[in-house]
Amino acid sequence: MVSAHxxxxxxxxxxxxxxxxxxxxxxxxxxxxAQRRPQGRRGPTATLTGVSGGLFGLLDDVAALARLAxxxxxxxxxxxxxxxxxxxxxxxxxxxxxxxxxQGVAAEREIPIIKRIARGSLRNxxxxxxxxxxxxxxxxxxxxxxxxxxxxxxxxxxxxxxxWERIAHRQPPQQDAGPGAGPDEDTVVKGAIRTDFILSAEIxxxxxxxxxxxxxxxxxxxxxxxxxxxTVLVYGVVALIVKMDDAGLSLTQRPSGALQAIGRGLVAGMxxxxxxxxxxxxxAMLWVGGHILLVGVDExxxxxxxxxxxxxxxxxxxxxxxxxxxxxxxxxxACSAAVGLVVGAVVVAVxxxxxxxxxxxxxx
Length: 364
Description:
0% strand, mainly alpha, 82% helix, 364 residues
């Protein structure tokens, strides 16, 4: 698609250049009056006709180039959408993780902190992750699959770790603080940006893998769109979430009974919403991580696990005519999540249960 567009664009550009040259040649014609007189009235008319014809042709070529540019923008947007969809699990996890960084912060500082984290996230994506990923895909494309698998393993570990914390009822340690003391804002922002760097790297590498066949310039444009779009989406949603209870409190003070009821519902629903987002984020991490590992081992030559899941998906699809596509997709998703849970549990065992993992556990 990109090569075809490039060819059409080149042809349109050549045509445009030729028309411009022809138009300028007509305007600069060195013919003297004695040479033009034998043509009678055709001299000025022919010149104006040539100029107008060249001008309209030039405008026609400009319109063609504009249509081509619009089509290219549409292609970049569509590719960015496909790439972003593949990173949905990490995006949900990013959205679920970020609100915890403003817990205990004064209400008037929540949005400024989220803005600082969002700027740091965008800086990570555009200045560090994007150039490294593009250079890697251009010169060492064979490393993309192993890097994706490392990231997939990390996602599996994070998902299994969250489940382990729920089962073991482990709570993060609370630091003692003086009366009225809140978390240090700079420390909160730096910690959030460090965590976001890992999730952003996963998002960008997964997205890059989806558009690896595009040209270098197209990959760069698509990933810039993905970086900006996902950052705005994630931190826009986070801002809405952390301000939902404030909006609810504001509505409870309105004279309207209906608005007061909505406000009470928003305040009461805030913990439930955060819990749902956390659960969805955990499942999404296991699903995406497991699927990355299945596809990765298949590309590296071990086909049995992926083929087994693929055959099971088709068997369910064929057994249920109504809703077979949805059930087949759910089967693939469940198998991927199961693989992610097994791999994540192994890593959690290594990090927290086995003897050489106790030091890390105690440090937490």
